[in-house]
Amino acid sequence: MRQQVELRKSITWIQGAAMTIGAVLGAGILVLPAMTANIAGPAALMSWLLMGLFSLPMVIAIGSMSSRFPDSGGMAAYVRQGFGEQASYITGILMLTAMPFGMPVTALVGAHYLGSILAWTSASIHLAAAGLLLIAITLNYRGINLSSYTQVFVVSAILFILTFAVWSAIPQVQISAFTPFLPHGWFPVGEAMTLLFFAFMGWEMIGNLSEEFKNPVRDIPLSLGAAVLLTNLLYFAVAFVTIGTEVYLSGNPITAMVTLIAYRWGDMAGTLVALLGFVVCYCPVHTFIAGFSRLVYAQTRDGHFPPYWGQLHRRFQTPHIALLVFAPIYFVILLFSYVLSWNLESLISIPCVNFLVVYMLGMAAVARTLPNRLGKVSAWISAILSGAIYIFAGWFSFFPIVVSLLAICQQRWSKAKRAFSCK
Prior knowledge:
Number of helices: 16
Main location: membrane
Keywords: Cell membrane, Membrane, Transmembrane, Transmembrane helix
Shape: globular
Radius of gyration: 21 Å
Subcellular location: Cell membrane
Distance between the termini: 39 Å
CATH architecture: Up-down Bundle
Number of domains: 1
Largest sheet: none
Structural class: mainly alpha
Membrane topology: Multi-pass membrane protein
Pfam family, one: AA_permease_2
């Protein structure tokens, strides 16, 4: 039997919206409102508002590009069209080196929520995070259709939880909590935006899934439009009540949402939110693992990885080898996190700075490729804003630079080796 060599086209705009919301709206909304408020005070609202506005031109550019040129390589494919093969390879490597940190971090946030009510040890929390990753890998292995229907259900739960949390907290909001508005000045607002990039990563994942849409020209813009509207509204609303109730001053920012609900409904409701928080964190893990495997598949198809990695499952038509080959890396990162007691904020910063560089490259490439003026202008705005936020990344800004230099050296060494073997 001849193996299927194309990804199955089965995603509708509703499934696409759920996958996109799931990629963007997850662990970040549970921890970052409190984290950013601790950094910038009430002025963290400006960070959320500015990042929300920043996401609009990026969504327009990604929607225009992915619907016009559906390719599972996503950003790496856009960079190839704009700047050539080497830049595409570097972009792919930057994304591949970000995911092994981003996925365990997201899973750990969910596990911390569950552990907060069950009094788990650090070992139990890390084991629960590993279980979350294993479930996502298994469901993605069995096909994008099952995967997307699962995401629709989980995203519906997320929207309910966040709406309930905001509504419950409104009576506890105090105007005095917003003064002084800038207790630490304007620089922390930019610093918080660097951290917030973790909450706004994910729009590009629709590009990695674009080959699997039934009607990409119609459905991708619809999916992105619904996703950007809902996520920005909920992000700002949750940040507003987190600051207005001063819940961010009450303890651990990882479990701030539990405290927020418990203010009005008591510990039992807080326990329910903690349980559902574990489910919330599953969403971005699920979608990013799906997009990550498609990126590996696309990079293999372009000749950057061994052909074996790009094989599709005969029955499920999924890049199952890509899912399985990189799975051990997630668990190794979790092991190091447990043994070395890594700081969660540091782990979040690593994928953030990588994706800032990816967005700079990707949006500049989109601006060079798209024929329509709106797409070009949106892409250039996104590229410039990504660069502006990157300035605030501090020492973490060196991570993507080192990764890029190593990728260039590896590529040149491979070319030299091939040239030598031909002599």
